[in-house]
Amino acid sequence: MEASDTGREPKTVFWKLWEKSWWLFALAFLGGMVWACKAFGNVALFKFWAFAFACLGAAILVYGWRARRFAAASISWFPTQARVLHSEVIEERQSSSTNDGINADSETVSYYPDIEYEYEVQGERRRSNQVLLVRVNYSAEEARATVAKYPKGAAVSAWYDPRHPARVVLEPGLRGAESKYRIPLLVGLGFLLLGISTLAVLEWLRL
């Protein structure tokens, strides 16, 4: 019986295409902003982005709340045997350059453990890459420690939701991962407050 990829995140084809064509989207975005500014004015554009930030923040808050709720419930999920198929630290680098010739280019490096495993529920084999129920960056030390904990070929335990077997996690509960489950809540709250405060200021100024 072939393994189901229901629990696994989407493949990286999108990101490969994005790496080659992101500049087209950037040009289209800039062109759209210039057109919108001329058509509707700066204030309308500010209000639109403030509203968009508020909506984005609300969406991230809901995502973080759901992930935290499922994580708290996962300690009572059903355990099952799993086998690690792939385990490595993914390192992503983002650089920003300056044109003043004085300041050096800055580079931001983020890490996360990419661990794919196979597990079986009621005779059906499934695959997932969820270590936690939230996707956030790790420090280099944390990512390497997690990969070392789940090496390729290792037999490990996974916990799945009996009502939704595709919802599975290697590390159930909130203990030891509180800070990671808190990140989406803080980010979402920041975006929401930024959007709401900007709208409030524009309304106060009667713009």
Radius of gyration computed on alpha carbons: 21 Å
H/E order of the elements? Answer: EHHEEEHEEH
Beta-strand content bin = 25-35%
Which descriptor suits the 3D outline?
elongated
Unreliable stretches: none
* The number of domains: 2
Number of strands: 6
Mean pLDDT across all residues, rounded? 84
**Roughly how much helix do the residues carry, as a percent range?**
40-55%
Give the biggest beta sheet. Answer: 6 strands, mixed
**Amino- and carboxy-terminal Cα gap:** 63 Å
**What structural class do the secondary elements suggest?**
alpha+beta
The total count of helices amounts to 4
Strand numbers in spatial order across the main sheet: 1-4-3-2-5-6
Describe this structure in words.
There is one protein chain. The chain has helices spanning 13-40, 42-73, 140-149, 178-204, and strands spanning 4-7, 78-96, 106-121, 124-128, 155-161, 164-169. The protein has 207 residues and is α+β, with helices and mostly antiparallel strands. It folds into two domains: 27-71 and 174-207; 78-96 and 104-171, no CATH class. The protein has a six-stranded mixed β-sheet with strand order 1-4-3-2-5-6. The longest helix has 32 residues, at 42-73.
Write the layout of secondary structure elements.
Blueprint: E1 4-7, H1 13-40, H2 42-73, E2 78-96, E3 106-121, E4 124-128, H3 140-149, E5 155-161, E6 164-169, H4 178-204
Parallel strand pairs: 1-4
Antiparallel strand pairs: 2-3, 2-5, 3-4, 5-6
Helix pairs in contact: 1-2, 2-4
